[in-house]
Specification:
Order of helices and strands: EEEHEHEHH
CATH class: Alpha Beta
CATH architecture: 2-Layer Sandwich
Distance between the termini: 17 Å
Strand content: 15-25%
Strand order of the largest sheet: 3-2-1-4-5
Number of helices: 4
Helix content: 40-55%
Number of domains: 1
CATH topology: Nucleotidyltransferase, domain 5
Oligomer: single chain
Number of strands: 5
Structural class: alpha/beta
């Protein structure tokens, strides 16, 4: 795994799914992430042109991909698909790609949306939940690496 370094990198994260890919951006310096958008996969195929546009626009120093595992830590078919997507990101854009265990990030994103609705906010679409999940994945990755970099 590449050195995660410290501090001020710009990052994009992806919550990969077969139908949709949630995308978020963040910066290590603040340790925060923001949902950007959700990309639709077309007939099961990744929209690489849309991803390329995002990478050109945001110019990230690294990419973070959420990798789903079963609750017991075992891999699933989606684990393999997400890792394949991460490998393709690296091959196409020559940018470091880091994995983050995304167990429960979608549930956390849905809970965030429920809390927002209860506070008077609008109901989110499934796509918005995907991009929120990508932001949660990225913030969790930054927190994990900040905590482990100082050990």
């Amino acid at each position: 795994m590449p050195d995660t370094g410290t501090g001020s990198r710009r990052l994009l994260s992806f919550d990969y799914g077969l139908q949709r890919i949630g995308v978020a951006s963040g910066q290590e310096i603040t340790g925060t992430a923001s949902p950007l958008c959700t990309l639709q996969n077309r007939q099961g195929k990744t929209d690489w042109d849309a991803i390329e546009k995002l990478i050109r626009q945001w110019q990230p120093d690294a990419l973070v991909i959420g990798v789903p595992y079963h609750i017991d830590g075992e891999q699933s078919d989606m684990t393999i698909s997400a890792r394949k997507f991460g490998n393709q990101l690296h091959q196409r854009f020559h940018c470091p790609v880091y994995e983050m265990d995304e167990r429960l990030s979608s549930i956390e994103a849905e809970q965030y949306q429920r809390n927002k609705r209860q506070a008077g906010g609008k109901r989110a679409t499934k796509g918005q939940t995907d991009s929120i999940a990508a932001a949660i994945i990225l913030e969790n990755w930054m927190t994990h690496h900040r905590d482990t970099d100082h050990d």
